[in-house]
Write a structure and sequence with these properties.
The chain is built from 10 helices and 8 strands. The chain has 244 residues and is α/β, with parallel strands linked by helices. It has one domain: TIM Barrel (Alpha-Beta Barrel), CATH 3.20.20. The protein binds 2-phosphoglycolic acid.
C-alpha cells in the first residue's frame, strides 16, 4: 500500500456559517487523485457535512479530549466528532501545544481516543526556530514521534504532519533539503510500525510553493492553514497534489 495523498485544510478559529459557501466551490472544483479534508471550528462541522451532501470531501476536528465522555466543560469527545460526520482529527498542533500546554503524552492519549472512535488522527510534530538554530531539529522530532504516537496507531488510522513552528503563518518555509531531511527521518523512524503512513508538510503552504513541496520525497500532502480558507487559494494546492 502506498501512502495516501491528502490535502488537509485547517481553518483554526476562522470561519462562520457564511464561509461555508467556500465548501461549494471546493466540492465543485476539486480534482480526484488525492483525498481532500477540511477541519473547521467544531460548531461548523455538522453544517459543513450537511452542505457537502454526497460530495467527495472529508471533514475533521481540530482537537478532541482523551476521555470518551464526562464532566469536561468546553471539551469535545472524539466520538462526538465522529457523530457530527468527522473522519479525521488534528492532534498536537503546535498552537494547542503552546496555548494549552499539551504534552506528547496528552497527544498520545487523545490519539488513542480518536482511534477508539474510528477517527484518523493527524499527529503534528515540529521544531521551534530556537531548536532549529541549535541544530536539534531531528532529535526534537524523534522525541515527539516517540511520545505522541500511541501503540494502537497503524498506517491506516494515523497521519503525521511535520510543521516547523517557525513556518506556521509566517510566510517562511524550510528549504526543500530541510523538508526532505525531516521527512526522510520520519519515514525511517516509522518504517517498522507505520510503513505506509501519510506524511504531510505544513507551514505556509500556498499555490506558489505547492508543486515544489509535493515533489520532495516522502511528502504525501499538506496541512494548510491560511490558504485553506478560500477555495480560490486552496484548490490550486489540491490540484498540485493530485498532479504530483
Ligand atoms: P499556515 O498554517 O498554512 O497558515 O502556515 C499551517 C498550520 O498551522 O497547519
Amino acid at each position: 500500500m502506498a501512502p495516501r495523498k491528502l490535502a488537509a485544510g485547517n481553518w483554526k478559529m476562522n470561519g462562520d456559517l457564511a464561509a461555508l459557501s467556500q465548501i461549494d466551490a471546493i466540492v465543485a472544483g476539486r480534482e480526484t487523485g488525492c483525498d481532500v479534508l477540511i477541519c473547521p471550528p467544531a460548531v461548523l462541522l455538522h453544517p459543513m457535512v450537511a452542505r457537502i451532501g454526497g460530495g467527495d470531501l472529508l471533514v475533521g476536528g481540530q482537537d478532541c479530549h482523551h476521555a470518551g465522555s464526562g464532566a469536561h466543560t468546553g471539551d469535545i469527545a472524539a466520538a462526538q466528532l465522529a457523530d457530527a460526520g468527522a473522519s479525521h482529527v488534528i492532534l498536537g498542533h503546535s498552537e494547542r501545544r503552546a496555548d494549552h500546554g499539551e504534552t506528547d503524552a496528552d497527544v498520545a492519549a487523545k490519539a488513542r481516543a480518536a482511534h477508539d472512535a474510528g477517527l484518523i488522527a493527524i499527529i503534528c510534530v515540529g521544531e521551534t526556530e530556537a531548536e532549529r538554530d541549535a541544530g536539534t531539529t531531528l532529535d526534537v522530532i524523534a522525541a515527539q514521534l516517540q511520545g505522541s504516537i500511541p501503540d494502537c496507531a497503524t498506517s491506516a488510522n494515523t497521519v503525521i504532519a511535520y510543521e516547523p513552528v517557525w513556518a506556521i503563518g509566517t510566510g517562511r518555509t524550510p528549504d526543500n533539503a530541510q523538508i526532505a531531511e525531516v521527512h526522510a527521518m520520519i519515514r525511517d523512524a516509522l518504517s517498522a510500525t507505520l510503513p505506509d503512513v501519510s506524511l504531510l508538510y505544513g507551514g505556509s503552504v500556498k499555490a506558489a510553493n505547492a508543486t515544489e513541496i509535493f515533489a520532495i520525497d516522502n511528502v504525501d500532502g499538506a496541512l494548510v492553514g491560511g490558504a485553506s480558507l478560500k477555495a480560490a487559494d486552496f484548490l490550486p494546492i489540491v490540484s498540485a497534489l493530485a498532479a504530483s
